[in-house]
Structure formats: C-alpha cells, structure tokens
Amino acid sequence: GIIYIAFGSLVSMSPEQRKSVVDGVLEVMELKQNIYALWSLPNDKAEPLKEFIPKEYQNKFVFYPWVPQETILNDPRVKLYINHGGIGMYHYTLIASNNHFSNLIY
Q1: DSSP 8-state secondary structure symbol assigned to residue 18
Q2: Residue 28 and residue 59 in contact, taking contact as beta carbons nearer than 8 Å
Q3: Is the pLDDT confidence value at 88 over 80?
Q4: What dihedral do alpha carbons 76, 80, 85, 89 form, nearest 10°?
Q5: What's the whole-number mean pLDDT along residues 80-101?
Q6: Quick check: 81 and 102 in contact, CB under 8 A?
Q7: Exposed / middle / buried, residue 32 (Cβ in 10 Å: 0-12, 13-18, 19+)
Q8: Which of 91, 63, 93 is nearest to 80 (CA)?
Q9: Model's pTM, two decimal places?
Q10: What integer pLDDT is reported at residue 84 of this predicted model?
Q11: C-beta of residue 95 within 8 angstroms of C-beta of residue 19
C-alpha cells in the first residue's frame, strides 16, 4: 500500500516536524513490508530528509514537488493520507472513490 503525504503549499513545517513524519512512516514500514511513501514536497525540503531514511528504505520513499491529488487519492493502493486538515484536503478525501484513512495533522 501507499502512504500519501501532502501538507499543501501554504503550510510551513519545521525540519524537525518533517523528520517526525518520516520517523512515523518508517515505523509503519517496519511493521508492514509492502508499504511505500509518496510525499508531495518541494525538492529543497525533500533533499535534507533523505539523510534520515535508512538505505534499506530509501527506495520506498518518493518525493515529488507536485502530484495530481485527486488521481492519487482515487488509486486503490493508497491506504493512508496524511495532510494538514484544510478544506481542500477534506474535499479531495470525500470525493475519493477508494476507502482509506485520512489522518489530520495540525
């Protein structure tokens, strides 16, 4: 399954907050083997995070500056959606055709 992470372009997270998200995803990956992370994050913010991802998990993290959100959320492989909880995120989650859990982080 895929963990999709997107906080939108207006949310400003500290490096520590982004590392905390990586740590949480790594915990899930240790429990479940076929889990991958897709994170919509600008390259300048994604690059520093790669040093916190162990080598054996680096191929399971994919960072893109932009992804087609509605398409991703309608993909049945997406099992968890981590977002900031804004109205746009709710909209995309509600219209998604697959069943997945949305976890809101403020």
Answers
A1: H
A2: no
A3: no
A4: -20
A5: 67
A6: yes
A7: exposed
A8: 93
A9: 0.83
A10: 72
A11: no
What is the rounded CA–CA span in Å between residue 7 and residue 84?
A: 5
Of 82, 16, 84, 28, the C-alpha closest to 52 is 16
Confidence of residue 65 (pLDDT cuts 50, 70, 90): very high
Q: Quote the CA–CA distance of 18 and 62 in Å, as a whole number.
A: 14
Cβ atoms 64, 3 nearer than 8 A: no
Given a cut of 80, whether residue 40 has pLDDT beyond it is yes
**Mean per-residue pLDDT, 46-51:** 91
Place of tokens 């995070």: 49
Q: How far is CA 37 from CA 19, 64, 80, 87, in A?
A: 14, 11, 9, 23
Q: What is the pLDDT of residue 30?
A: 95
